[in-house]
What does this fold into?
Amino acid sequence: MKVSLKCFASLVKKDVCDYRESTPYELPAGAKVTTLIDDLGFRGEEIKLVYVNNVIVPQTTNLHEGDRFAFAPATGGM
It folds into this structure.
């Protein structure tokens, strides 16, 4: 299935994910947010907020074809 990802602040990685444009990814059916976190080499604790289709969700959320999601790190006061 195809999904797209944006990353913010300290999570931005060149050629992995950016905050300007969504980066497309191909994942197996039934994948969870944690699947992509692991595939991209992030540590779960680096990511404070996960948005899927503009809604904050837990990292264990199942992804679906066409989902748009974003990762945000903890920032001051979080």
